[in-house]
Design a protein that fits this description.
Radius of gyration of chain A: 21 Å
Low-confidence stretches of chain A: 233-237, 345-349, 357-362
CATH class of one domain in chain A: Alpha Beta
Order of helices and strands of chain B: HHHEEEHEHHEHEHEEHEHHEEEHEHEHE
Helix content of chain B: 25-40%
Strand content of chain B: 15-25%
Shape of chain A: globular
CATH architecture of the largest domain in chain B: 3-Layer(aba) Sandwich
Largest sheet of chain B: 7 strands, mixed
Structural class of chain B: alpha/beta
Number of helices of chain B: 14
Oligomer: heterodimer
Number of helices of chain A: 10
Low-confidence stretches of chain B: none
CATH topology of one domain in chain A: Rossmann fold
Number of domains of chain B: 2
Amino acid sequence: MPSMTMSTLPDFAQPVSRRAWTKRLLGPIDEATWDELARGLFACQFARVPAYRRLCTAHGITPKQLVSWRDIPAVPQQLFKREKLFVHGSAKPAAVYETSGTTTGQPGRQHLLSTDIYRAVSIEGARRVGPLHSNPQFHFLTPSPAETPHSSLSAMFGFWQKASGQADSLFWIRKGRFEFDGLRETLSQAISVGQPVAICGTAFSFVHLIDAWADLPPLRLPPESWLLETGGFKGRSREVSKAELYAQLAQIFTVPDYAIWNEYGMSELSSQAYAHGTSGLHGTPPWTRVLVCHPSTGREVSVGQRGLIRWFDLANVDSVLALQTLDLAERTASGFRLLGRLSRTEPRGCSLSAEDLTTSATR
Amino acid sequence: MSRVLTTLLTPLTTRQRLDLLAHAYPRLFPRAELIRLLRAQFGHIDALDGWISRDGVRVRARTPKLIYHVCAGNLAVSAWTSLMHGLLLGARNVVKLPGDRDDSSARGEILRFIRGLPAPLRKLVETHRKLDVEILRRADAVVAFGSDATMASLRDQTRWDQKFIAHGHALSLLWISDPSLLTTLQARACSRDILTYDQLGCLSPQAIYVPRGADIVALGNKLAVALEAHWRTIKLKPARPLSIAARIVEARDVAHALGHRVWLSPQNHLGWMLIHDPDPTFQPSPLHGVIYLREIAESKLTAALASVAGRISTVGVAGGISSRLENVFLSLGVSRFCPAGHMQFPPLTWHHDGRSTLGDMVTWVDSERGA
């Protein structure tokens, strides 16, 4: 397979090129095609993102020297807080998604020239490996995209809503207030007519919901309804384990464990992984790859070993395709088992660390 | 009755406790230093055992009967010192051990220290794995190390009239006054400050500050050689499990991407890393041997360190320090200056966090003649 040269690289500034790239991503992708696309995107981003080029050069990796896509250097998530990683230089981005966590006083920022590819893959990814199989009535436990234009999660939920053809805005956090009563009333109406519903939000928002409805009778969601939670809640008002959260949700909404989904995504990426049930493994869409690597070696760990998740996302055309997370996982024969975010609370006593000066959170 | 049995059954004098401590741990607690500590804190070595005369007044120090020590999980040495204080005072010492973690050896080191005490002192110590609020509230004095949140939480659980000595989070810095004059010995001294205790204590420097205009590459090269040389001398090298390696590698890759100069071990290990950050504003290091080199104009120092004002413990100095610069550091709350190479080894008379730790735990009794 001949490698892509700079002259044949798609120009992601052009809508027609972006459409063509999206079409390739959503089409059949065998290993050779994946490798070709990854090499091409790497070459493009190496050439156009100075900070990424510096990192790759320090690792001794250039597009010409690349042996395998597995060797493509990954940027630490932290870098999005320190540097603008944008392929298009000074062009005006259509969206800037921010992480809320910070150790520098600055949030991490993902710049997208257009939201077209993000929209396409976040819908198609949820269809292929996530819960978007039917057309339930959506309820989102987040502010709307209009209210929080810098939230990639709200944006994705907005894409889902539009793709479903539902005109009603069912984003239940409005002006900073969680409208528990309105949500319950609307859910009750859907239940009364047997309308399947999907309730999507952060784990933290579900914890709030559980607390708010602690004294109310459970709701019996219609068949084919599902819940989707994402993100953690470490450092929030209270922490609960995933098993505890799922058990409480299953009880409150009278849904089976397998009808509760986890979305694993982040602002710095365009694609997401999905798992369902307390012990389900995450699936990833075909235009992504996930490696579980040990930071000491930079290499993939063996099956059964623990490491950190490294994402390769061919939809991340406007910044960098390879992202090194601090998310702990166990490598399995078929992929990975997400274990959670690496604790920042190392054993320290009197020594001051970044966490003492700031707080951190995600997406 | 044998002498040993007598020692076990009768209360020991301060001199006896001092001798036992110095005999058990002569390098950690040299006898002469222990005497100096008692004299500095109480004016007289026997002030804990009877009346002494001070400025014409008979005084004696009443010691706490029960001290509760809440130990941190990063370093055993702070717990050892705290226990030494408690034992010198002849108190019963209850030690709340840090949690057992695979990336810290502090708990085991504290237990080994206690096991190494002579029997008459060991019987004054008991260890607990969990916080015992009842004992915490009953103690005459509480000495605690840990996060600010832990300190606040403990404070909430103490009585108003308890002596509460809290050591929250702090950091330290190195100042190299003239990098062009830095000798190999001074570079080694800086390396010792950085790598001792794997950079985990409040006395560990998290950044090296140098005056603006220095030859950073030459300085970095010199320090890198010294860091590698010192790392090689460490017999029990600190582990780099996944969680720690991840922080180090993250710092390295961010620095590479930002175009900062990074000095790495030629042996490719993660024992140390030197990063030149052109931004003088202090940012915490991920610790574990990662040190930032920053240039600063003296006039900008206050602004650069504003985020950690009041939390800077020690400034280690390689070369000299002007009184003007000293005043800048003082205004930032620095409580100790020392030569490079000595940062991690303060004398026993050191005022930890600016306090007379031992003296803070006693209550003075005055007896005025002719009253």
